[in-house]
Amino acid sequence: MLNMPEPELNAILMLRPLTWNLAEAINNLAHQARVKGFLPGGLSIWNYSEFWKVLLHLEEDMQSMELSCYNLSNTEMKAVYPKYRLSVPGLSEGKPSAIVGDKILVKKSNDDSDSWYMGIVHAIGFKELDLYVNGGFSLHRSGNKVDVRFQLLTPARILFPEGRHTDGLRRCSEAQLVSLNLMNAAMADHLEQLEAVVAIANMPPGSVAFVVFTP
User: Fold this and answer.
1) Where is each Helicase MOV-10-like beta-barrel domain found (predicted)?
2) How far apart are CA 42 and CA 25, in angstroms?
3) How many structural domains are present in the chain?
4) Considering the domain boundaries, does residue 78 fall inside one?
5) Range of the domain at 79
6) pLDDT tens-digit profile of 130-182?
Protein backbone atom coordinates (compact mmCIF):
# COMPACT_ATOMS: atom_id res chain seq x y z
CA MET A 1 0.00 0.00 0.00
CA LEU A 2 1.33 3.43 -0.94
CA ASN A 3 0.26 6.20 1.43
CA MET A 4 0.27 9.40 -0.62
CA PRO A 5 -2.17 12.17 -1.63
CA GLU A 6 -4.56 11.19 -4.42
CA PRO A 7 -3.66 14.13 -6.75
CA GLU A 8 0.02 13.19 -6.59
CA LEU A 9 -0.76 9.54 -7.30
CA ASN A 10 -2.96 10.47 -10.25
CA ALA A 11 -0.19 12.59 -11.75
CA ILE A 12 2.28 9.72 -11.45
CA LEU A 13 -0.09 7.25 -13.06
CA MET A 14 -0.66 9.64 -15.96
CA LEU A 15 3.09 9.85 -16.49
CA ARG A 16 3.58 6.15 -17.08
CA PRO A 17 0.97 4.69 -19.49
CA LEU A 18 3.52 2.17 -20.77
CA THR A 19 2.23 -0.65 -22.91
CA TRP A 20 2.99 -4.08 -21.47
CA ASN A 21 5.27 -4.96 -24.40
CA LEU A 22 7.35 -1.80 -24.07
CA ALA A 23 7.64 -2.21 -20.30
CA GLU A 24 8.79 -5.81 -20.81
CA ALA A 25 11.38 -4.78 -23.40
CA ILE A 26 12.79 -2.06 -21.15
CA ASN A 27 13.10 -4.23 -18.07
CA ASN A 28 14.24 -7.50 -19.63
CA LEU A 29 17.83 -7.60 -20.90
CA ALA A 30 16.94 -10.30 -23.39
CA HIS A 31 14.31 -8.05 -24.96
CA GLN A 32 16.03 -4.66 -24.89
CA ALA A 33 17.16 -4.97 -28.51
CA ARG A 34 13.47 -4.71 -29.41
CA VAL A 35 13.05 -1.26 -27.87
CA LYS A 36 13.85 0.58 -31.10
CA GLY A 37 10.96 -1.25 -32.69
CA PHE A 38 8.57 0.79 -30.55
CA LEU A 39 9.80 4.07 -32.06
CA PRO A 40 7.53 5.18 -34.91
CA GLY A 41 10.21 5.37 -37.61
CA GLY A 42 12.08 8.58 -38.34
CA LEU A 43 11.02 11.72 -36.53
CA SER A 44 8.52 13.80 -38.50
CA ILE A 45 5.79 16.37 -37.96
CA TRP A 46 3.27 13.53 -38.05
CA ASN A 47 4.75 11.33 -35.35
CA TYR A 48 6.81 13.60 -33.09
CA SER A 49 4.36 13.27 -30.19
CA GLU A 50 4.52 9.46 -30.16
CA PHE A 51 8.26 9.48 -30.89
CA TRP A 52 9.16 11.68 -27.93
CA LYS A 53 6.66 9.95 -25.65
CA VAL A 54 8.48 6.65 -26.09
CA LEU A 55 11.88 8.30 -25.53
CA LEU A 56 10.55 10.03 -22.42
CA HIS A 57 9.38 6.71 -21.02
CA LEU A 58 12.76 5.13 -21.77
CA GLU A 59 14.64 7.95 -20.04
CA GLU A 60 12.29 7.90 -17.06
CA ASP A 61 12.60 4.15 -16.66
CA MET A 62 16.39 4.31 -16.81
CA GLN A 63 16.43 7.03 -14.15
CA SER A 64 14.17 4.88 -11.96
CA MET A 65 16.51 1.91 -12.35
CA GLU A 66 19.53 4.04 -11.46
CA LEU A 67 17.79 5.43 -8.37
CA SER A 68 16.79 1.96 -7.20
CA CYS A 69 20.49 1.09 -6.87
CA TYR A 70 20.58 3.40 -3.85
CA ASN A 71 17.63 1.84 -2.01
CA LEU A 72 18.47 1.15 1.64
CA SER A 73 17.66 -1.58 4.14
CA ASN A 74 18.01 -1.33 7.92
CA THR A 75 19.25 2.24 7.85
CA GLU A 76 18.93 4.56 10.84
CA MET A 77 16.05 7.01 11.11
CA LYS A 78 15.33 9.23 14.11
CA ALA A 79 12.32 11.27 15.11
CA VAL A 80 13.03 15.00 15.33
CA TYR A 81 9.39 16.01 15.54
CA PRO A 82 7.64 17.10 13.45
CA LYS A 83 10.32 15.80 11.08
CA TYR A 84 12.35 12.62 10.77
CA ARG A 85 16.11 12.43 10.19
CA LEU A 86 17.23 9.72 7.78
CA SER A 87 20.81 8.49 7.53
CA VAL A 88 21.87 8.19 3.87
CA PRO A 89 25.43 6.91 3.31
CA GLY A 90 26.94 8.42 0.18
CA LEU A 91 24.74 11.50 0.26
CA SER A 92 27.70 13.87 0.39
CA GLU A 93 29.07 12.29 -2.81
CA GLY A 94 25.74 12.63 -4.59
CA LYS A 95 25.01 8.91 -4.37
CA PRO A 96 22.10 9.43 -4.42
CA SER A 97 21.63 13.10 -5.15
CA ALA A 98 18.71 14.80 -3.44
CA ILE A 99 17.04 18.18 -3.50
CA VAL A 100 14.44 19.79 -1.27
CA GLY A 101 11.01 18.56 -2.29
CA ASP A 102 12.14 15.10 -3.40
CA LYS A 103 9.90 12.24 -2.33
CA ILE A 104 11.16 9.05 -0.69
CA LEU A 105 9.26 5.93 0.39
CA VAL A 106 10.00 4.57 3.88
CA LYS A 107 8.75 1.79 6.14
CA LYS A 108 9.98 0.15 9.32
CA SER A 109 12.40 -2.66 8.60
CA ASN A 110 10.47 -5.06 10.83
CA ASP A 111 7.18 -4.29 9.08
CA ASP A 112 6.22 -7.30 6.96
CA SER A 113 3.31 -5.50 5.33
CA ASP A 114 3.52 -3.63 2.05
CA SER A 115 2.69 -0.26 3.65
CA TRP A 116 5.15 2.34 2.41
CA TYR A 117 4.90 5.95 3.57
CA MET A 118 5.77 9.00 1.54
CA GLY A 119 8.45 11.28 2.94
CA ILE A 120 9.22 14.73 1.51
CA VAL A 121 12.77 16.06 1.76
CA HIS A 122 12.76 19.26 3.83
CA ALA A 123 16.47 19.79 4.48
CA ILE A 124 19.72 18.18 3.33
CA GLY A 125 22.73 17.60 5.54
CA PHE A 126 26.13 16.01 4.98
CA LYS A 127 24.95 12.43 5.45
CA GLU A 128 21.34 12.92 6.54
CA LEU A 129 18.02 14.01 5.12
CA ASP A 130 15.28 15.70 7.13
CA LEU A 131 11.86 14.49 6.00
CA TYR A 132 8.24 15.23 6.62
CA VAL A 133 6.48 11.85 6.47
CA ASN A 134 2.85 10.87 5.97
CA GLY A 135 0.88 11.25 9.22
CA GLY A 136 0.27 7.51 9.60
CA PHE A 137 3.98 6.88 10.12
CA SER A 138 5.63 6.97 13.54
CA LEU A 139 8.94 6.05 15.18
CA HIS A 140 10.39 5.95 18.66
CA ARG A 141 12.19 9.20 19.36
CA SER A 142 15.39 7.22 19.91
CA GLY A 143 15.13 5.90 16.37
CA ASN A 144 14.31 2.81 14.37
CA LYS A 145 15.71 0.94 11.43
CA VAL A 146 13.86 1.59 8.19
CA ASP A 147 13.87 0.46 4.58
CA VAL A 148 14.03 3.19 1.96
CA ARG A 149 13.06 3.40 -1.69
CA PHE A 150 14.19 6.40 -3.69
CA GLN A 151 11.51 7.38 -6.16
CA LEU A 152 11.44 9.17 -9.49
CA LEU A 153 8.17 10.97 -8.91
CA THR A 154 7.14 14.11 -10.75
CA PRO A 155 4.83 16.17 -8.51
CA ALA A 156 1.50 17.36 -9.87
CA ARG A 157 2.67 20.96 -9.42
CA ILE A 158 5.29 20.41 -12.15
CA LEU A 159 3.12 18.87 -14.85
CA PHE A 160 -0.32 20.13 -13.86
CA PRO A 161 0.12 23.32 -11.78
CA GLU A 162 -2.99 24.88 -10.28
CA GLY A 163 -3.68 28.23 -8.69
CA ARG A 164 -2.91 26.86 -5.23
CA HIS A 165 0.63 26.05 -6.36
CA THR A 166 1.37 29.74 -6.97
CA ASP A 167 -0.50 31.28 -4.03
CA GLY A 168 2.73 32.15 -2.23
CA LEU A 169 4.45 33.74 -5.22
CA ARG A 170 4.56 37.51 -5.63
CA ARG A 171 5.94 39.86 -8.24
CA CYS A 172 9.45 40.94 -7.28
CA SER A 173 9.79 44.22 -5.43
CA GLU A 174 11.81 47.28 -6.37
CA ALA A 175 14.20 46.49 -3.52
CA GLN A 176 14.84 43.02 -4.94
CA LEU A 177 15.48 44.45 -8.39
CA VAL A 178 18.16 46.86 -7.23
CA SER A 179 19.79 44.41 -4.81
CA LEU A 180 20.79 41.88 -7.48
CA ASN A 181 24.48 41.94 -8.38
CA LEU A 182 24.45 41.56 -12.17
CA MET A 183 27.35 39.97 -14.03
CA ASN A 184 25.95 41.50 -17.22
CA ALA A 185 25.25 45.15 -16.41
CA ALA A 186 23.35 45.60 -19.68
CA MET A 187 20.49 43.53 -18.25
CA ALA A 188 19.60 46.44 -15.97
CA ASP A 189 18.19 48.18 -19.05
CA HIS A 190 15.86 45.27 -19.87
CA LEU A 191 13.21 45.32 -17.16
CA GLU A 192 11.33 42.18 -18.23
CA GLN A 193 14.50 40.08 -18.35
CA LEU A 194 15.65 41.52 -15.04
CA GLU A 195 12.32 40.74 -13.39
CA ALA A 196 12.49 37.16 -14.67
CA VAL A 197 15.99 36.65 -13.24
CA VAL A 198 15.06 38.20 -9.88
CA ALA A 199 11.85 36.15 -9.69
CA ILE A 200 13.76 32.91 -10.34
CA ALA A 201 16.47 33.83 -7.82
CA ASN A 202 13.87 34.46 -5.12
CA MET A 203 11.57 31.49 -5.73
CA PRO A 204 11.19 29.32 -2.61
CA PRO A 205 12.23 25.64 -2.80
CA GLY A 206 9.61 23.43 -4.41
CA SER A 207 8.06 26.19 -6.52
CA VAL A 208 6.39 25.49 -9.84
CA ALA A 209 8.62 25.59 -12.90
CA PHE A 210 9.44 29.03 -14.31
CA VAL A 211 9.11 28.97 -18.09
CA VAL A 212 11.03 31.61 -20.04
CA PHE A 213 10.34 32.23 -23.73
CA THR A 214 13.17 33.93 -25.60
CA PRO A 215 14.07 34.55 -29.25
Assistant:
1) 71-150
2) 20
3) 3
4) yes
5) 72-152
6) 999 988 888 876 668 999 998 876 666 666 677 787 787 788 888 888 888 88
